[in-house]
Amino acid sequence: MSKIIVITSGKGGVGKTTTSAAFATGLALRDYKTIVIDFDVGLRNLDLVMGCERRVVYDFINVINGEANINQALIKDKRVENLFILPASQTRNKDALTLKGIARVLEELKKNFDYIICDSPAGIEHGAIMAMYFADEALIVTNPEVSSVRDSDRIIGMLSSKTRRAMQKMPPIKEHLLITRYEQKRVNKGEMLSIKDVEEILAIPLLGVIPESLEILKASNSGVPITYNKETDAGQAYLDVVARFLGEEPPKRKKKGFFRRWFGRKL
Amino acid sequence: MKNKPVLELKGSLLTLMVLNLFNSDNEVIAKALAEKISKAPDFFQQVPIVIDLQALEDNPIILDLSELIKLLRTYGLTPVAVRGGSIEQNEIALNMNLGILNNIKSQTSASQLTEETKIAVTPEILPTKIIRNPIRSGQQVIADKGDLIVLSTVSHGAEILADRHIHVYGALRGRALAGINGDKKAQIFCQQLYADLLSIAGQYQVNEDFPNDLIGKSAQVYLEQDNLIIKEL
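Above: the input entities. Below: the structure tokens describing the complete assembly.
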């Protein structure tokens, strides 16, 4: 059974596209046939983060409008088998997304893929609603700060009211909380909300915590999803997220000990 | 040039003076009327007046309506309509250019009666709205009749409103407005008070004004002489 998963947040800049790329790559590395769709029409970014921007010929909107068939628009990832990208159009805007068109494309993709990852645009408008509408599960990407948490809360409300599952009275979308850009140091200083605070306010199951990492910026800029770099905290954290998503219980990552914290990474 | 409409017909509620008659003897009426009007003769000049004959319905002596209308006109009043008259009296009124108004009294008494019997048979039960899921930022839940009970949390930026009481069994972080139709006896009860705003029958307080020691506590909110009181439960 193919599953549609939306990566959403409400707020911008919290790591939706990074997560979409890393999560989709992680699933593909586990041999699931995965496609990631960029719903951010007009602000095409996913192909950059995935390092395939120079191979975009046709895009999602072309397929919706029937100007290209799905196979012409799909871009096969060069690093891992089973991973495909459906890029957004940079020249159009979100009004080009129609429910009917999206439904048709998704139906087509369901035949061939295990997981369909929808990278939502920020905001709560048309584009975000289109991205979440057909979802079976949702990853809510949240930074440990109040505005991001509030926006996520709003998005969770929309998941349970504005989507196909809500409107057709089907079982609700399964929600997962993903906290990104987390810094224990700043939490200890009281500058950042703790995991517990965020969990308490949003009241949905926590799938994982991605630490703030310079490696992510590097990964995005070089177009290599962070999941390939298991040596980094963030890369490992995304792999753990994928494992937990697939129902496994990955080993608890030990927090750095006293000495290690004291002497930094040199030890 | 704008196309202004030439005219407009609209229903309107007006305050009209009504002359209720309890005696059908024109002489007695004339005397009583003279006495009333002599107290403030200017006040009655050109005043439109409705003649109400309902009380005379069962009176054996038939009032001479045309005489009465003439009498009122001599005092400067302007009779405009008759209400509760017999068929003959209505005929007279129409002939003298007066309107006929519906006999509202008997109608209301009749409807009052049915209403009362209805209440007696099935006492009105106000429906309570029970919400089990969390109410998220941007969502609004209204119980426009009766109470609202929320078994989960109400997030910051969410809004819950009720005609009567509000109960929240999770954390209350959003806005809670009870007694939205003016019920000053409505109250708010919650397990963990972090609300953005609390209001009862329009009297409100924002979070900053809450007593500090009550934040996060279970609390009861009610009105006392139009002042919003927040008290620990």
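Note for the figure: DSSP finds 13 helices and eight strands in chain A.
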